[in-house]
Design a protein that fits this description.
The protein is α/β, with parallel strands linked by helices. Among the domains are: about 325 residues, ABC transporter type 1, transmembrane domain (ABC transporter transmembrane region fold, Up-down Bundle); about 55 residues, no CATH class. The strands form two sheets. A six-stranded mixed sheet has the order 6-7-8-3-9-10, with helices on both faces. Strand 4 and strand 5 form a beta hairpin. Helix 2 runs antiparallel to helix 5 and helix 7 packs antiparallel against helix 9. The structure holds adenosine-5'-triphosphate. Adenosine-5'-triphosphate binds next to helix 13. It is a multi-pass membrane protein. This is ABC transporter ATP-binding protein. One of its GO terms (cellular component) is plasma membrane. Keywords: ATP-binding, Membrane, Nucleotide-binding, Transmembrane, Transmembrane helix.
Length: about 600
């Protein structure tokens, strides 16, 4: 429950005094509701059902007042008071209901924003460790459950406030009977603790099942081509069949639990009312007027006990979601990159005058691994030149690029730009100076224009076509039905692999970055388009620092410097032609192997 209290504190912080005004509204509404019950007494007396004299003590003053007024006037006064109280109560209740939703919405917005902001501020290694479907599950389903828990908590508070006021009233009318009902409530409350514990266990199961469901569905839809081409449809359906059986069983167990607790409360309420009436008649010798009023109060109070119990069970089932979201926020905070300006818009990109240096850097993904992924790499990437990184598969090329881009931090050694270490104070400016084209290029499900504008919001039409021209994609974009405004589908699915790669390249160069990083960026291109891009990249030489990871080694012939990595170590560095000509070099060997593959 500690996690629920955490979110209640956040609700208080987000809503400020509005929360207290709302709680006060709840108290007023409950109070007016109670007063309306008290009006029953003079009303019943006037109608002649009971005599005012029977309620000696508590109501004698009402009797005194009414005795001096003609009966019709008295009836009109009481009915008028009743209407005024019910109007007042309805208005307050309406205001409270609207305000509660407004508060929940405000809190929902704040919670979504703060969670997403924390997530965006987390460093790249955090995302390497987490499954994206788990993050989506927390940000959608579990976050909605947290909002549900907060709204339930508010309802619970209202129920408790109402109950306390009614108990106060009942106590005033008959302390003995009230204590009896309270004691019964406490006994039932203690008994129902196991229901709450079980609801919490079922809530954890709900969280796990929804996590598995989302993870499985995301995986399968991402790999739908593999599912279909390998005819895995039946096995995938079997997976969902098993999972939905689990979900149904869990939901049934939860409903069984809730109905059992409600059943016990209802049955015990029948017994309690019978015992209550018997005791009040036999032991307390309660007057009929008092008995009527107390019965009216308890008839409204007992369902509140039941709803408090039901709210507690629901809250317990939502507690694991609160815990999960809280853990995510905490993990994000621990993995946060302290970038200079929140939002980062005011920071200008860094200029690179001399170059980038990796000074004896080492790195491993998992601190428990004995082997280092990168070992003691010492290298200089000169500014405005083209540096190519080559090496066998799994050698550590992409890892080195991530390190050079400041996405991961070295375990040992230092990354320096123009001799200055890259740290928290200049990381954002450094990142802003880099454009990156990944091995598996990503495009947003929007038009080509929107994808380009996302990177450079003020790009002119001319700049967009210039970038597309550079990336050898202007011809095919012109031929698309809506040209620049063609929507390219989820992750750019409506484009071929090569077209996607070229649009991503255009997007990377449109903001004229100081550093352009291409990780196997031309792997999906045919020879003709690769040649065009190669020529374009060659034209960029001298204008920006280019770092290329190349699988097809023929594409790095024009690099100013080639770095060869093997098993996380820098094994060769130099001019392409020199290294390629050396029969003992690893680069020479790799080129030879590729030539044989092609032959
Ligand atoms: N997120 C990760 N967690 C753990 N190990 C990783 C992770 N990413 C990569 N590795 C490991 O680090 C090593 C280097 O991987 P890297 O992707 O840098 O190689 P690469 O040279 O780019 O390979 P390729 O040419 O096949 O893309 C590999 O052994 C790989 O299994």
């Amino acid at each position: 429950m500690a996690s629920i209290f955490h979110y209640m504190k956040r609700l208080r912080a987000v809503s400020g005094t509005a929360l207290y005004v709302n709680l006060f509204g709840m108290v007023v509404s409950s109070f007016l509701d109670s007063v309306s019950i008290l009006l029953l007494i003079p009303l019943l007396s006037l109608i002649g059902i009971v005599s005012m004299d029977m309620g000696a003590g508590y109501f004698s003053w009402i009797s005194d007042v009414l005795d001096n007024i003609p009966p019709t006037t008295a009836l009109l006064i009481i009915l008028g008071a009743y209407i005024a109280i019910m109007f007042g109560q309805s208005l307050v209740q309406r205001h409270v209901a609207v305000q509660s939703v407004a508060l929940q919405q405000k809190f929902g917005k704040a919670l979504r924003l703060e969670t997403y902001q924390a997530l965006l501020a987390a460093s790249w290694p955090f995302f390497l460790k987490k499954r994206s479907s788990d993050l989506i599950n927390l940000l959608t389903i579990e976050l909605a459950r947290v909002l549900g828990a907060v709204s339930l908590f508010l309802q619970l508070t209202a129920s408790i406030v109402f109950t306390l006021i009614q108990i106060g009233l009942a106590f005033w009318l008959s302390p003995g009977l009230t204590l009896f009902v309270l004691a019964s409530g406490i006994v039932l409350g203690l008994f129902s603790r196991r229901f709450i514990k079980r609801a919490k266990r079922l809530g954890s199961q709900t969280s796990k099942l929804s996590q598995s469901y989302l993870a499985g569905i995301t995986d399968q839809l991402n790999g739908i081509k593999d599912v279909k081409s390998n005819t895995l449809e039946r096995s995938r359906l079997r997976w969902l069949d098993g999972l939905t059986d689990g979900m149904a069983a869990e939901q049934l167990a939860y409903i069984r639990l809730r109905s059992s607790s409600q059943l016990i409360y209802k049955m015990s309420s029948a017994v309690l009312i019978a015992v209550f009436l018997f005791i009040s008649y036999k032991l307390f010798h309660t007057q009929s007027l008092q008995l009527l009023t107390i019965t009216a109060i308890f008839a409204r109070l007992w369902p509140r006990f039941t709803s408090i119990q039901s709210n507690l069970e629901q809250l317990a089932s939502m507690a694991p979601a609160c815990k999960g979201l809280l853990r995510l926020q905490e993990d994000c905070r621990q993995a946060a990159e302290r970038l200079e300006a929140p939002g980062g818009d005011a920071v200008s990109p860094m200029r690179v005058e001399q170059g980038i240096d990796c000074v004896n850097v080492s790195f491993r993904y998992n601190k428990n691994d004995s082997a280092l992924t990168l070992q003691n790499i010492h290298l200089h990437i000169p500014a405005n030149r083209m540096t190519a990184i080559a090496g066998p598969s799994g050698a550590g090329k992409s890892t080195l690029i991530d390190l050079v881009m400041g996405m991961i931090r070295p375990e040992d050694g230092q990354l320096r730009i123009d001799g200055q270490p890259v740290g928290e104070e200049n990381l954002l400016a450094y990142r802003k100076s880099i454009s990156y084209v990944a091995q598996d290029p990503f495009l947003f499900n929007a038009s080509i224009r929107e994808n380009l504008l996302l990177i450079k919001p003020d790009a002119t039409e001319e700049e967009m076509w210039e970038a597309l021209e550079f990336a050898a994609s202007s011809d095919f974009v012109r031929k698309l039905p809506q040209g620049l405004d063609t929507v390219i589908g989820d992750r750019g699915i409506r484009l071929s692999g090569g077209e996607r790669q070229r649009i991503v390249l255009a997007r990377a160069v449109i903001r004229k970055p100081a550093i352009l990083v291409l990780d196997e960026a031309t792997s999906a291109l045919d020879t003709e388009n690769e040649k065009k891009i190669q020529e374009a990249i060659d034209r960029l030489k001298g204008k920006m620092t280019i770092i290329v990871v190349a699988h097809r080694l023929s594409t790095i012939r024009h690099a100013d410097q080639v770095i060869v990595i093997d098993q996380g170590k820098l094994v060769e560095r130099g001019d392409y032609r020199q290294l390629a000509a050396d029969p003992t070099s690893l680069l020479g060997h790799l080129i030879h192997s590729q030539a044989e593959e092609i032959a």
